[in-house]
Every structure is written in structure tokens, then in C-alpha cells.
Specification:
Layout: E1 31-32, E2 36-38, E3 43-45, E4 47-48, E5 51-52, H1 62-70, H2 77-80, H3 84-93, H4 97-100, E6 104-108, H5 114-121, E7 125-130, H6 134-142, E8 148-152, E9 165-170, H7 180-187, E10 191-202, H8 212-219, H9 224-246, H10 252-256, H11 272-287, H12 297-306, E11 310-317, E12 320-326
Parallel strand pairs: 6-7, 6-9, 7-8, 9-10
Antiparallel strand pairs: 1-2, 2-3, 4-5, 10-12, 11-12
Bound molecules: S-adenosylmethionine.
GO molecular function, one term: methyltransferase activity
InterPro entries: Methyltransf_11, SAM-dependent_MTases_sf, Trm112-like
Organism: Microtetraspora fusca
Length: 327
Amino acid sequence: MTLSKHASAGLDTPRAWWSELRCPRCHGDLRAEGGLRCDACRTTYPVDRGVPRFVPADNYANGFGYQWNQHRLTQLDSHSGLPISRDRLFRSSRWTAGELRGRRVLECGSGAGRFTEVLCETGAEVTSFDISSAVHANAASNGRFPNLRLVQASIYEMPFPEESFDHLLCFGVIQHTPDVERTFKTMFRYLRPGGRFCVDVYAAMVAYTHPRHLLRPFTRRMPPAALYSLVQKTAPRLLPLSMALHSVPKAGPYLARLVPVANLSYLNLKDRRMLRNWSVLDTFDWLAPRYESPQTRRRLERWTRDLALSEVSIERHRGIYVVRGVK
Ligand SMILES: C[S@@+](CC[C@H](N)C(=O)[O-])C[C@H]1O[C@@H](n2cnc3c(N)ncnc32)[C@H](O)[C@@H]1O
């Protein structure tokens, strides 16, 4: 594909890397013309503020778009001044910054870009996408990196050539998709044979009682702005109670769990304002998603066997399974 000269300069000026994108429906080439045009299936995909969009603007993840645009900076290491995302990425994946430099890394479901930032800093050639308008939060924060390619797309219909990435990263996403097995298996089509992956997912805990599961049937149907305003009012009030219960010897963490607020005090954030921000963000993140399907270790083992993945390790970190290995 050759990119025709675009009439308007500025944010939607064609970028050279757009020529590597493929039509997610028919895998045809795309041409920059009033957006990105697939001549084979006659579909035109819009470019919104410099970010090509391959999904309807209105989709099941609208709540995430709202959340990440409200909290564009909250979880970015460059904002918190702490290496929270960096440590999680390298601890979970066991990759090193050195091995990523110059490699093609695919990040699925990037949200506001806390991990995009860490990946870009390694000098990798990073391709990140999210189904929601969170991509605009990510673009505002990480658009400064020349090694970032950012699109709004779904894991189910990615606009990339298959087997074209060296590394695949997906954190905090697959439990929030409508068909988790299909999500998991689809992502691997884009990783080259021999490529490394790291995917995490909420762990299903049979006896796990959490008050959010009582609230979610109502809250997941609420308009994001209404739910957010409710959380913004209640979370800062519940947080001191949660912290007081948490400090009870032995039973503290279990008692604190009965209060429906995300308590991130274990992160040792710099000040109370930051702690309140993380708390509002994570409480909303518990309550708003349309889908939440935690997974069992047995299911994850089956899927990795079905895909014939190698060097697979499945580790439990707090309430999350981290799955890593080689395709
Ligand atoms: C809990 S957030 C995690 C974001 C980021 N990975 C992080 O850890 O900060 C889950 C993200 O998955 C995205 N998501 C959900 N379904 C998706 C899909 N089918 N394709 C791409 N992204 C999806 C949501 O829009 C949301 O931003």
C-alpha cells in the first residue's frame, strides 16, 4: 500500500506504519483516504485524533473508556513516581528491558497505558491497542514515544498480520471479554512461532466472597458517569474503615474485604490523595465492567495445551494467574 498525500496536516496525517496495518475483516491492504480504506471489502475505518479505529465507538467497554480518561495518569509510574507497573511487568513476564529492545511487542488491551509506558521505555517497537476510548488517554500520555503504534481495535478483530510479533503482553483484560477462551486463543495467532508471551487473568476462587459480586449485577448496568459519581463520593469515605479493619491482627485482610472499596494501602503510595485516587479508580474498575469471568488453573492449562505452547508456567500472584511461556 502506498499512502496517498493527506489533505489535512496535523493529528490525522498518515504515519508510515499505517501501511503495515491490515483490514481486520478481510486482511486486505489499507489505503489512507478519508480514514483507512480497504478496497477489497470496501470498508473505511476512521482515524480519530491520530488513532485509527477498527471498532464501533460505542461498545461493551465504554465504562473502561470512561474510567481511563478520568484516570489518565493515576497508575503511570511517571506520575506516581514509583516503579509499580515496571516491577509488575518484569516480575510477571521475567523478560528484561534488554531483551525487549528493538523487538516487536504486542500489547493487548492497554487501558491508559501504564504498561505501554514501561514497554516504550525499553526501546521495543510497541504496538498497543484497546477496544475502548482509553486509547486517547494512552495517546495523550505516551504519544511522545516514536516507537509506539496505537490503534483502537478488538482482540477478536486485530488489524495486524498474523505471526508478526516477537512478544505478546496482555494484563488485566481477558476476564473482561465476552468469551475468555476465544480471547486467549485468538491473541496467539499474532505471535510468531518461538515468540514469548505473558498474559494474566483473575483467578477463580470458589470460596471467594467479595461484596462486589453482590453489587455488580446492578452497577454493571449503570451509565458510567452515574456510577463514577457514586464511587467518587463513597470510596473515600469507606477507605478509612477498610484501613482500620485491615490493621486488625491476623483477620484484618479478611475483614477489610467485607467493605466494598479497593484498598491499595499495600502499594505504599506517596500520599493520601494518591491513595484515594487509586481507590476510586479500582473500585470503579470492580463494579463497572460488563463482563468479569475469573478462570481456573485447570482451564488455563487446557488452553495452553490446546495451543501446544511450550515452557508454560502458571503462577498465582495474589488473586491473579500469570501465564507465561513460548509459542
Ligand atoms: C482492567 S483494564 C486493563 C488495562 C491495562 N492492561 C492495565 O493493566 O492497566 C481492561 C482493558 O481491556 C480492554 N478490553 C476489553 N475487551 C477488549 C477487547 N476485546 N479487545 C481489546 N481490549 C479490550 C478494556 O477496554 C480495558 O481498557
